[in-house]
Amino acid sequence: MSAIWKPSVTVAAIIERDQQFFMIEEETPDGIRINQPAGHLDPNESLEQAVIRETLEETAHAFTPTGLIGTYMSRFISPTKGEAVTYLRFAFSGELGAAQDRPLDTGILRTVWMSYADLLASQDRHRSPLVMQCINDYLQGQHAPLSLLFTHPSALGNLEPQK
């Protein structure tokens, strides 16, 4: 019997204000990269909870998701490690809230507002090709309601017997 293949599930926050996008610069094994506030889905949390948590951890700002821009899949092979990982990304649009008094996650160098032109000019520094794809989809008005997503309580750690 072969093993079941599983992608790495991630979330990302697409935050735009006055034609500028709220991005992070982060240290990675492959150098300093530009990304949206993003990260992995943790056990016992919904996709919405994950994007709220990741945005807070990486930007020290609250985030309120308002819509799902899309779901994306890509495969990445690290040039330094040679390992392949497939990512399944859920990108959310939303509102940036107040700054919190907390440090940024380890590896996050800073947050930065960037124009679309700046993002296009820095594609060689993007964490993945999904950075531009998500922004392009956002700018084209791609948007689904959050009601499209459903998280059963069992996925949140509420392991009650099925009736």
Task: Give an overview in words.
This protein is α+β, with helices and mostly antiparallel strands. Helices cover 18% and strands 41% of the residues. It has three helices and eight strands, in the order E-E-E-E-E-H-E-E-E-H-H. The strands form two sheets. The chain has a four-stranded mixed beta sheet, sandwiched between helices. Strands 2, 3, 4 and 8 form a four-stranded antiparallel beta sheet that branches. The longest helix is centred in the N-terminal third of the chain and has 13 residues. The radius of gyration is 16 Å and the shape is globular.
Low-confidence stretches: none
Order of helices and strands: EEEEEHEEEHH
C-alpha Rg, in Å? 16 Å
Overall average residue pLDDT: 94
Structural class: alpha+beta
State the helicity in percent bands.
10-25%
Within the largest sheet, what's the order of strands? 5-1-7-6
Ends: how far apart? 31 Å
**Count of runs of 4 or more consecutive helical residues:** 3
Biggest pleated sheet: 4 strands, mixed
Query: How many strands appear in the DSSP assignment?
Result: 8
Layout of secondary structure:
Layout: E1 8-14, E2 16-17, E3 20-28, E4 31-35, E5 38-40, H1 47-59, E6 61-77, E7 84-99, E8 108-115, H2 116-121, H3 130-139
Parallel strand pairs: 1-7
Antiparallel strand pairs: 1-5, 2-3, 3-4, 3-8, 6-7
